[in-house]
């Protein structure tokens, strides 16, 4: 459940198994976030894993040493631990992004997709991620932001100790994905939600014609991805 990512300007699409094609655009956002990294020997934490689709994709396709998905919603964690129990390297744990239930220097990589914006205290989140990352570890983050907020976000990252290796405005990739995935999203909403809630759900999902889609398309709302580095002292 994210706004998705589509490749532009002739970029080659990732190859997916047939079972994953239906979620292609949402998967491509996760792939964009982690694609710069070789995860095969890495211990990875995802903060805000939701119902685990991104965690499943990364574990199955990138083969990390371990992947821990964490979320604040206990029902989501219960679902994930049951639904993905056959993926050996993947596990899920309940926790709060502002007080991570892990020891210092525990992970090589932390992933965060469309989640940090929702936290009450983003500074605490960045400080906690910095704490649990090993030296030379990286935070791979993607989220939406108003243009006036981007400098403040960069400042929070820097004050927490991170240096920025890469930052990319992927708004047009997200808009393209939303356009191509809009029919699927609308069909899901129309078949699985009461009629009274459908308009609000479609806005939340960013389907074509909604205020959320228009805000992305016109630049009122932007979408950025970051690779942040915890340098050794």
- State the low-pLDDT regions, or none: none
CATH-level-4 superfamily name: Vaccinia Virus protein VP39
CATH architecture: 3-Layer(aba) Sandwich
- Oligomeric state of this protein: single chain
Mean pLDDT: 96
Strand proportion, as a percent range, falls in: 15-25%
Q: What count of helical segments does DSSP give? A: 8
Cα shape: globular
Strands side by side in the biggest sheet = 3-2-1-4-5-7-6
| Helix-strand sequence | HEHEHEEHEHEHHHE
The major β-sheet equals:
7 strands, mixed
Structural class by SSE content:
alpha/beta
**Total number of strands:** 7
Considering DSSP H and I runs of 4 or more, what fraction of the residues is helical? 25-40%
How many domains would you count in the coordinates? 1
Which CATH top level class fits?
Answer: Alpha Beta
Describe the structure in your own words.
The structure is a single chain. This protein has 233 residues and is an alpha/beta fold. The protein contains eight helices and seven strands. It has helices at 24-34, 53-62, 74-83, 122-132, 150-159, 171-192, 198-205, 211-218, and strands at 43-47, 66-71, 90-94, 107-113, 133-145, 163-169, 222-229. Strands 3-2-1-4-5-7-6 form a seven-stranded mixed sheet, sandwiched between helices. Helix 1 crosses helix 2. It is globular. The N and C termini lie far apart (37 Å). The model has no long low-confidence stretch (mean pLDDT 96).
């Amino acid at each position: 459940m994210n706004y998705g990512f589509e490749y532009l300007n002739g970029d080659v699409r990732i190859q997916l198994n047939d079972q994953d094609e239906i979620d292609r655009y949402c998967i491509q956002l996760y792939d964009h976030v982690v694609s710069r990294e070789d995860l095969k020997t890495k211990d990875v934490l995802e903060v805000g894993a939701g119902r685990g689709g991104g965690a499943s994709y990364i574990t199955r396709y990138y083969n990390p040493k371990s992947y821990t998905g964490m979320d604040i919603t206990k029902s989501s964690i219960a679902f994930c631990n049951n639904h993905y129990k056959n993926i050996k390297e993947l596990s899920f744990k309940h926790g709060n992004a502002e007080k991570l239930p892990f020891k210092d220097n525990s992970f090589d990589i932390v992933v965060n997709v469309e989640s940090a914006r929702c936290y009450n205290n983003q500074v605490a989140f960045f400080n906690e991620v910095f704490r649990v990352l090993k030296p030379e570890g990286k935070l791979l983050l993607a989220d939406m932001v108003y243009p006036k907020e981007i400098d403040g976000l960069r400042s929070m990252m820097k004050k927490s100790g991170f240096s920025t290796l890469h930052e990319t405005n992927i708004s047009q990739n997200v808009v393209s994905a939303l356009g191509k995935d809009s029919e699927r999203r609308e069909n899901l909403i129309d078949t699985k939600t009461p009629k009274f809630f459908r308009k609000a759900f479609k806005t939340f999902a960013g389907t074509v014609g909604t205020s959320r889609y228009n805000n992305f398309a016109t630049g009122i709302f932007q979408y950025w991805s970051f690779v942040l580095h915890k340098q050794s002292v």
